[in-house]
Amino acid sequence: MALDSGVASLGVEGAQAAAHALSLPAEAYGNDERIEAIWAMKAYNHAEIYFNLISSVDPKYLKLTKNDDLIYTKFKETFNDIKLQILDPEQLKSAEAKEKWRPFCNSFEGAVEDFNYGTLLRLDCSKEYTEENTIFATRIQFFAIEIARNREGFNDAIYNASVKQRQQSQSSGQS
């Protein structure tokens, strides 16, 4: 799933053009493959940064937005039945789920920046981002689920594995 060249491959002018393009309304493009590729790169970069973050900092101490408490409370009130360890895509994408998610997501318009941007979300929180373990979701869905995973200890496995790996690397370097 790696995008080796990423945004850097666009160069300064390309990156500026991409930034401008991403600021325009979606209706201006239809299904432009170049724009879809830029969005995919942006979503991948966000996922990579987030995964590095939960690998480096104990997730229970992370604050993802200034509205984490509100997002978590509303998420638990609305979606208490969602199994956070391994998400069922139907609980995000089915027609019934979309009807339930829509008002939740829209309630954060103006309160959470880019609340409806496309973001990558891991299905199984004990695993990395891979093609098989990733679903496309809105940013507010990502925040709601990942804030809950962090607070409830489901992302601890990623952090603990990273700590163990660093310790092993340090031990083998000292031998």
TrEMBL record:
Name of this protein: Protein PBDC1
Gene Ontology cellular component terms for the protein in this record: cytoplasm
Highest rank taxon of the organism: Eukaryota
Species for this entry: Chanos chanos (Milkfish)
Residue ranges of domain Polysaccharide biosynthesis in the record: 35-159
